[in-house]
Specification:
By secondary structure, this protein is an alpha+beta fold. Helices cover 39% and strands 21% of the residues. A hairpin with a 2-residue loop joins strand 4 and strand 5.
Length: 160
């Protein structure tokens, strides 16, 4: 074979470069999905804590143990009640007028009428009925989202 003097890449060199680029792209996609998953978990954990604290504040602000604002949460099944717009407004967790809001929800977090976690699933809340023990009440609220374990906020010895 005669050398024409032109320089060119061989098929093996092109395949090697393509393989290296594919490996690097795979590593980038993998690390990006891991980072996104961690960010979703952190955001959901923060939101769950805020929901639990808002329900606790609602409970503390209620003047009687059978306050109708608490009924959606205390009457919920073991899986809890979905945080829909109607539940949020009727309970007073979010403000509809002059009343203060216990929970601030960014508008983009409510989809199809429900407060949703970063994966798009609705948050669910269940509150164990407060019990009286010598003028001290026990409070527990469970907020769950399907992609992680439940978050429990339990406080004992909260005097009312």
């Amino acid at each position: 074979m005669k050398d024409s003097g032109e320089k060119a890449f061989t098929v093996i060199e092109l395949l090697t470069v393509t393989a290296i680029i594919s490996i690097i792209a795979g590593m980038i996609v993998s690390s990006t999905s891991i980072a996104r998953s961690r960010a979703y978990k952190a955001a959901a954990a923060t939101e769950v804590q805020q929901i639990a604290m808002a329900v606790k504040s609602l409970w503390l602000s209620s003047t009687e143990s059978n306050d109708p604002r608490l009924s959606p949460f205390t009457g919920a099944s073991s899986s809890g009640v979905e945080l829909t717009e109607s539940v949020l407004t009727s309970s007073g967790l979010i403000s509809t007028g002059k009343d203060p809001s216990f929970l601030e929800i960014p508008p983009d977090r409510i989809e199809d009428g429900a407060y949703r976690d970063p994966w798009g699933n609705p948050y669910r809340v269940r509150m164990d009925k407060p019990e009286d023990f010598e003028e001290v009440e026990v409070f527990q609220v469970a907020v769950s989202f399907p992609n992680e374990q439940r978050y429990y906020l339990q406080e004992e010895g909260t005097e009312q």
